Amino acid sequence: MADQTVFTTPDPTVRELLATHSNLSLDVRSGLMLDGVPLQAIADEIGTPCWVMSADTLRKRAAKLHNAMKSAGLSVSTHFAVKSNDHLAVLSIVSQAGMGADVVSGGELIKARKAGIPASRIVFSGVGKTDAELRLALQEGIAQINVESAEELEILSGVASSMGREIDVALRVNPDVDAKTHAKITTGVAGNKFGIPYDEALGLYRLASELSGLRPVGYAVHIGSQILTMEPYRAAYGRIAELVRVTRQAGLPVTVVDCGGGLGICYRDEGEGSPEALAGVIRSELGDLDVHLAIEPGRWIAAPAGVLLASVILRKKVTEGSPFIILDAAMNDLLRPSLYEAWHGILPLSAHDAVLAPEEACVVGPVCETGDTFAQDRSLPPLQRGARVAILDTGAYGAVMSSTYNARPLAAEVLVDGDRWSVIRPRQKVEDLWANEILSEGMRVEA
Ligand SMILES: Cc1ncc(COP(=O)(O)O)c(C=O)c1O
Ligand SMILES: N[C@@H](CCCC[NH3+])C(=O)O
Questions:
Q1: pLDDT digits (tens, 9 = 90+) for 122-159
Q2: Name one Pfam family in it (predicted).
Q3: Which of 102, 216, 272, 407 has the greatest count of CB atoms below 10 A from its CB?
Q4: Does 84 sit in the ligand 1 pocket, CB within 6 Å?
């Protein structure tokens, strides 16, 4: 077992990141550890870039969320948002920790089933489900489909009737509440593509009760992602509670409210969304409705469980301003900084690097895009060629959003469980990049 001696580093960012990430520690000899595993050992054996997930963190966070709901006296089904991390190992761990799944495609549905998540614990959300995906959901007998438009209601009714099936349906309502998060991940304001306009919801609920193949059971709402304060949740759930009352007054039964996901985490110093506070809001706004409650968290469960390991290819001097630290990971691996200007903590893997006095640097990848930037003018220990770093909080919306842009093979994935680790997806081979490309004989030119 490695020596867990904590020592002082002069870099306040390093100290703060270690303080806010309880699964990470800096060991004098072994460097940065994720749970009981030195990350250098993984990088030595597997190479970089490489995603590493902590099984323990997934389990602990699922338990924390369940306890928060229970302590508030709520019985809530939790559906892990598969879009945040769809690795079979992750799905299997969260399933064993008591979660079902929220899926947005046929592919996610099949992966959730492959990971052992029972169909009865799967809900299907999304603005555009194809007929084939709806048929799959009906064949599998999943718990519920969250319908997002009048058009989808008609299509689903047609598909279900043609199969002689009936399915529980919740209407996803757009409550026109601003989640005060990044504009690209806000989903609950009027004008977003998501959900049924609030004022149309009751009419469509009535329509759903008249259409064959559908059993309208309630409402769903999801207002966005990385939400840190409770006001938007309170406003959205308050509106849904009102809708439930009005629907019942109209003589239509409502038995389900799906409260969506969106709870945020602490990437930098913003503090994390509190499951206890969320439970409190759900109880105060929806607790007396006598409905079955559900939530769909993704990021809050998975993001802090993962890091992305990378190596410094080179350090590029500039005449003015911060030097460029060019990593072997890039935007094709982790897209969030490029897409949302998202801030991710970066820590050196070596204890030796971690104790150096910090400098300002720009951390970038080698992809041919100026947007391929992980951090601008970031205070970091001076990282030299060959140094390794961990980019933090990449367990959600990390590997799932990777691509092979610039013909860069998908990075390896590793699972840490206590003081053991194993590869859960080998690095993609370069040959795999063209394995499915068809080059007809006439097109082939001998090199
Ligand atoms: C319908 C739905 N549910 C759940 C989630 C999960 O969100 P988060 O990862 O922020 O918890 C999303 C993504 O924003 C979503 O679109
Ligand atoms: N992919 C986004 C969040 C979108 C969530 C899905 N609706 C992120 O990385 O933060």
A1: 999 999 999 999 999 999 999 999 999 999 999 999 99
A2: Orn_Arg_deC_N
A3: 102
A4: yes
Q: What pLDDT digit, counting tens, does each position of 396-437 carry?
A: 999 999 999 999 999 999 999 999 999 999 999 999 999 999
Residue 48 Cα to ligand 1 midpoint, Å, equals 29
Say how far apart CA 43 and CA 370 lie, in whole Å.
27
Q: State how far the alpha carbon of 378 is from the alpha carbons of 94, 188, 331, 341, 351, in Å.
A: 34, 33, 17, 13, 19
Q: Residue 272 Cα, ligand 2 centroid: separation in angstroms?
A: 16
* Identity of the residue numbered 96: Q
Output the residue whose Cα is nearest ligand 1's atom 12. 261
Angle 60-391-17 from CA coordinates, rounded to 5°:
65
Q: Which phi and psi (to 5°) does residue 55 adopt?
A: -65, -40
Ligand that lies nearest to the alpha carbon of residue 297, given by its number in the listed order: 1
- Residue of 360, 351, 347, 378 whose CA lies nearest to 16: 347
Residue 105 CB–ligand 1 contact under 6 Å? no
**Region label for 442, one of left (φ > 0), alpha (ψ between -120 and 50) or beta (otherwise):** alpha
Are the beta carbons of 95 and 115 closer than 8 angstroms? Answer: yes
Centre of ligand 1 from the C-alpha of residue 92, in Å: 19
**Where are the chain's structural domains?**
12-54+304-431, 56-302
**Which amino acid belongs to residue 355?**
V
How far is it, in rounded angstroms, from Cα 158 to Cα 57?
Answer: 43
For 12-54+304-431, CATH gives 2.40.37.10
Question: Is the reported ipTM for this assembly greater than 0.90?
Answer: yes
Coil, helix or strand at residue 129: coil
- The superfamily in CATH containing domain 56-302 is Alanine racemase (3.20.20.10)
- Ligand 2 contact via 433 beta carbon (within 6 Å): no
pTM of the model: 0.96
Do 171 and 220 touch, CB atoms closer than 8 A? yes
Atom 8 in ligand 2: which residue has the minimum CA distance?
397
Residue nearest to atom 5 of ligand 1 (CA): 261
Ranges under pLDDT 70 in the chain = 1-8, 447
Closest CA to 291 of 446, 14, 75, 90: 75
